[in-house]
Amino acid sequence: MAGYKTHLMGGLVFYFMVIVFIILQLTGRIEVGLSESLTSFLHQIVPNDPQTLIYSLISLLFGSLAPDLDSHASKIRSVVTSLSIFLLFMVVVLPLFGIEAISIDEKVLAFTVIVLVFAIIPRFFSHRGAWHWFLGLVVGIWSILLISDQYGVAFTPTAAAYIIGYSSHLILDII
User: Fold this and answer.
1) Which of 116, 135, 127, 136 minimizes the C-alpha distance to 64?
2) Which of 15, 46, 157, 162 is deepest in the core (most CB within 10 A)?
3) Tens digit of each residue's pLDDT, the chain (175 residues)
4) Burial class (CB in 10 A: 0-12, 13-18, 19+), 143
5) Is the sign of the CA dihedral 153, 154, 160, 161 positive or negative?
6) pTM of the model
7) How far apart are CA 123 and CA 144, in angstroms?
8) Domain assignments of the chain as residue spans, ordered by start
């Protein structure tokens, strides 16, 4: 069974292999005979600015660990649980007492909801159950859609990075 470091490194390796393949295809260094529409889509996957690259790498690394949110012993589960408790305290509890520790806007609320979804939903599934194989992928893509809308992040490269990370986790679990 692969540990979290293996999943993180595996996600990075898979991601950079895909990106290098796409760049080689787009620059004409290799010819695979892809259709024009597929080539156009692949062009959208490659991050084209530093902000998109950073969000894509965060999405990739989170996607590499996300399937294990349904495991009681996973490091990612303890991190997401701690973050959700912190956010609930900052966004809900402190304002009840008139203390606004952080400025609460749509972005903060969207991020809080996403963290809570990732902290709560996997607890209803056994390890390597529905969350591990399908539901985590769907929820992750929904979260990226919400974040890309709130934060102005390019959806396609960020979602592709999450999917690559998530898929690499599943492949490494099989190996």
Assistant:
1) 136
2) 162
3) 578 999 999 999 999 999 999 989 888 888 888 788 888 888 899 998 998 999 999 999 999 999 988 888 889 989 999 999 998 898 888 888 888 877 778 888 888 888 899 888 888 888 777 787 788 899 999 999 888 888 888 899 999 999 999 999 999 988 8
4) buried
5) negative
6) 0.86
7) 21
8) 4-174
